[in-house]
Amino acid sequence: MINNKSNGALSQFKRSMIGLICATALISCSEPSDHSASKDATDISTNGVKISKPVVYQVFTRLFGNKETANVPWGTVEQNGVGKFADFTPKALQEIKALGTTHIWYTGVLHHALVTDHSKFGIAADDPDVVKGRAGSPYAVKDYYNVNPDLAIDPSQRLAEFDALIARTHQAGMKVVIDIVPNHVARNYQSASAPKGVADFGANDDTSKAYARDNNFYYVVGEDFQVPKSDDYQPLGGQAHPQSDGQFAESPAKWTGNGSRAAQPDINDWYETVKVNYGVKPDGSYDFPQLPAGFEKKPIAEHYAFWQQHDLPDSWYKFRDITHYWLKRGVDGFRYDMAEMVPVEFWSFLNSSIKMKNPDAFLLAEVYNPALYRDYIHKGKMDYLYDKVGFYDSLKALMQQTGSAEDVLAQQHKVQDIAKHMLHFLENHDEQRLASDEFAGDARMGKPAMVVSHLISKSPTMLYFGQTVGEDGSEDAGFGKPSRTSIFDYIGVPAHQAWMNNGKFDGGQLSEQQRDLRAYYVKLMSLSTLPAVVAGDLYSIVVDTQNAIAQQRIMAFARAFSNQKLVVVSNFDATEPHTITLHLPTDWQNTHYLAKDLLERYASMRVQDNQIKITLAPRASAVYLLEE
């Protein structure tokens, strides 16, 4: 499998590929400030309406409504089918909402490069030599002012169909998040839909120079682009196509999206994309002002005012205008791809401009370098970052029975000062499916992990479509390989399709085990509005056991807000029950507590000597509400 950002593998290459930015962006961590889109409530209701902590439902839009089950590797849209905006019916949205969802992240909405021919709608065809898969990577955006024609019943009306989806989502009580990919665009970027007066990326570049501040791209002057070669890969799996000839006209060659400066990138590079220039010179120095000392503590309005005083690189304004365009259409927020490869100053500029238009906009960023977390939150004014390198990685190891509960808690404490900004997830389009053999081999191992992930902090929780019914990602789709549901190919998603039940969205084709799993998720996610979950502090719990394995695989903690106290305990052992004693925080001394389990209906009990004794079944959890 080709190893790159787009295929979802967070390889060592991806972790180290910080491009031009991180070589000069390792700024010391600052004191936390509070500008999160979800406030720490002192009152957990507003006008009687309960406040939930954010729950994001990520859906790969192209796959969600697809009913075809042929799953031919490298199959065409006619063979394997494709979902549409219209598949998100009021019933479908109601069922998504039932998971406690506050925001739907519609992944792959923007018009990206794809091989399917839509030329009869005036949409130029894309060359398979610079497209990954047949359906294309959603992170190779071709036109920022329109949406993927595959997703519309009538591609000539695709924007209107997406507008209607935004309206339906809002009517269902949820907000809309879409991707913005500032680090790179499709190698064949050409906006046929840009508003009057908006120039395409690169249209005004001086291509005689490798770098100029207001060029949108970097150039390999004097050399033409050459399609990468590999003995192990052929576009479309070797199927014939009139444009698949190993050639793509680009003169001079542009730098590739991951920062490669070669006219012929490596097959493992992000060769389907070109890197965007933000005024970072080839030597890594900056061609734009930097934030004054102490600005990490300044509010949004002061960041916005600061940037209004300066003339900035052209790419900054292009992406500002793009995000404002989508805000005007009703989009409520953005998920930023590989944000750490773009200077933190740009994020201060962009996010402050967004917040001035919509203070409640939801801004989520993909950042994998823990040394940069606080800068991208405080200086870059991000609401949320993935808690991937740290919390997710340690939780995955615990699910695989190679890590320990102690490791997970240690990772949580490392980010405790910014915990409410660190979004938690068990699956997304980049990661392996829980049920895949390469991950846990059993979707039920996600039950204790989801309890911990969802309840341990004020942070948002994210669910990936198909996760709640045990999708295993085992299909050989073509470019995308098993263990991750492919984002590059036309493919059906079997467990999700069983829940979808030919568009009824009632779970009618699910097995009993799948129905039980979804019901578990619904029950767990219903706890999102508890005050202790929304705004509670985290307390340590001592787990008393003589069993060394139980000590590693039992995880416990407590949350409290005002008079509400929760005790959470999970058994990550896949096969063995464990009997343990939980020692509550010493300042909770009260022999009159009644502990009631809110999740799996473990028997209620009186707390004796500030202790709870319980025998947990394999993969089981208890969420005790302590009542005086």
How would you describe this structure to a colleague?
With 628 residues, this protein is of the alpha/beta class. The protein is built from 16 helices and 25 strands. An eight-stranded parallel beta barrel has the order 3-4-7-12-13-14-15-16. α6 packs across α8. It is globular, with a radius of gyration of 25 Å. Residues 1-42 have low confidence and may be disordered.
Give the helix tally: 16
Structural class: alpha/beta
Return Rg in Å: 25 Å
* Number of DSSP-assigned strands: 25
Shape from CA axes?
globular
* Overall average pLDDT: 92
State the strand order across the main sheet: 3-4-7-12-13-14-15-16
Major beta-sheet overview? 8 strands, parallel, barrel
Low-confidence stretches: 1-42
The first-to-last residue Cα distance is: 57 Å
**Overall helicity:** 10-25%
Query: In what range is the share of β-strand residues?
Result: 15-25%
Q: What descriptors fit this protein?
A:
16 helices; alpha/beta; six-stranded antiparallel beta sheet; eight-stranded parallel β-barrel; disordered N terminus; single chain; 628 residues
What would you say about this model in short?
Helices cover 23% and strands 17% of the residues. It is α/β, with parallel strands linked by helices.
Topology summary:
Blueprint: H1 12-16, E1 45-46, E2 49-50, E3 55-60, H2 61-64, H3 77-80, H4 90-97, E4 103-107, E5 110-112, E6 141-147, H5 158-171, E7 175-180, E8 184-186, E9 219-220, E10 253-254, E11 273-275, H6 300-308, H7 314-328, E12 333-336, H8 344-357, E13 362-365, H9 373-378, E14 384-386, H10 388-399, H11 405-414, E15 422-425, H12 446-455, E16 461-464, H13 494-500, H14 512-525, H15 531-535, E17 537-540, E18 542-544, H16 548-553, E19 554-561, E20 564-571, E21 578-583, E22 594-597, E23 605-606, E24 611-616, E25 621-627
Parallel strand pairs: 3-4, 3-16, 4-7, 7-12, 12-13, 13-14, 14-15, 15-16
Antiparallel strand pairs: 1-2, 5-6, 8-11, 9-10, 17-19, 18-21, 19-20, 20-25, 21-24, 22-23, 22-25
Helix pairs in contact: 6-8, 7-8, 10-11, 12-14
